[in-house]
Amino acid sequence: MKKMGIECTFFDPDAVSDEEFKALIRPNTKLVFGETISNPGCEVFDIERFARLAHEAGIPLIVDNTFATPVHCRPIEWGADIVTHSTTKYMDGHGSCVGGVIVDSGNFDWMAHAEKFPGLCTPDESYHGLTYAKDFGKMAFIVKATAQLMRDFGCSQSPQDAYVLNIGLESLHLRMQRHAANAQQVAEWLSARPEVAWVNYSGLSSSKHHALHQKYLPQGGCGVMAFGLKGSREEAIKFMDALKLISIVTHVADAKSCVLHPASHTHRQLSEQQLREAGIAPDLIRLSVGIEDVADIIADLEQALQSLR
C-alpha cells in the first residue's frame, strides 16, 4: 500500500486504551480497519468499541468478516460502516474461484466530514461532475466503488466465477455450523495434548477472546484456529509433513481441512522480530478445520503428533 501512497498505523486492539487509540488518529486518517476473526492469529475484534471510537474521530469502520461470514456475525449491526469478504474462502467453500465483496451499510455521513473525503464529497469530472455523497446519499460509497473504481481498477468477477460462488453460497449456512462444531472439538482436543504449547481459538473458555466470542459469535466462530507445538520450528514442519488427511496449502477456510506454518511459508521472508511485530509467532500453525468427520481429523492430528516422539 505504501507504493500507492497509502500509509497505515498499526495498533494492537487488545492492548490499546481508548486514549492511546485516539492519539493514533492523524489529520489524514481516513478509516479504521479490523478483522472479525484475524488471519492467522484468530483473535476477535471488538467491533462495537472501535466503531464508537472511529465515529468519534469522524471516520468509518471497515471490517473484514471473511472468517465469521454473515452466518455467524453481522458487523453492521454492531456499528461497522463497510464490510468486506474474501469470497474465495468460506463463501465459495471449495477453493473453486477467486472473488471479493464490499457491503456498504449506507450509515456513514460522508458530507458531515466532507473535508476528509473529497472523492465522495466533491464533483467527479469523469462522471459529468456528479457528487456521490449529494447525488446518491446512502449509496454514495458503493456507487463510487462500482461506477468509478471498478472502471479504473478492473476488479470485477468473471461470470463463471460468480456462478460457482453462487452455488457455494447455497450451502454456506450448513457448512459454517459443521466447521464451527468440528473446530470446537479439535481445539478442545489439542488443548489437552502434552505436545501442544498453546491453542488460540475463541470458542475455548480459556481464550482471552472468549467474552468477545460470546458477544459477537454466539452461534459459533469458524473452522480456523492457531496453535503452537512445544519445541522448535523444525518440529512444527515435521508434524505437518506427517499429516495425511489434512493438506498443507496456503488456502484457508475450505470444506477440506488444511494447515499452514506462516513463518516458513507465507511469511518466510520476515525475521523472527518482524514476525512477532506482525502478530505471528514463529511456532504458529494455522489449522483450518474442514467438514470431514471430526474423528478422522483428530486421528490424523494424533498420528502426526506421535511421529514427533
Describe the structure.
This protein is α/β, with parallel strands linked by helices. It is 35% helix and 13% strand. The protein is built from twelve helices and nine strands. The strands form two sheets. The protein has a five-stranded mixed beta sheet, covered by helices on one side. Strands 1-2-3-4 form a four-stranded mixed beta sheet. The longest helix has 20 residues, at 172-191.
Features of the shown structure:
globular, 13% strand, 309 residues, 12 helices, 9 strands, single chain, alpha/beta
The multimeric state of the shown protein is single chain
Poorly predicted runs are none
Radius of gyration: 21 Å
| Main beta sheet | 5 strands, mixed
Q: How would you sum up the global shape?
A: globular
- Helix segment count? 12
CA(first)-CA(last) distance: 44 Å
Class computed from helices, strands and strand pairing: alpha/beta
User: Which series of helices and strands comes N to C?
Assistant: HEHEHEEHHHHHEHEHEEHEH
Share of helix, binned:
25-40%
Determine the mean pLDDT: 94
The largest sheet has its strands arranged as: 5-6-9-8-7
Percent in strands: 5-15%
Count of β-strands: 9
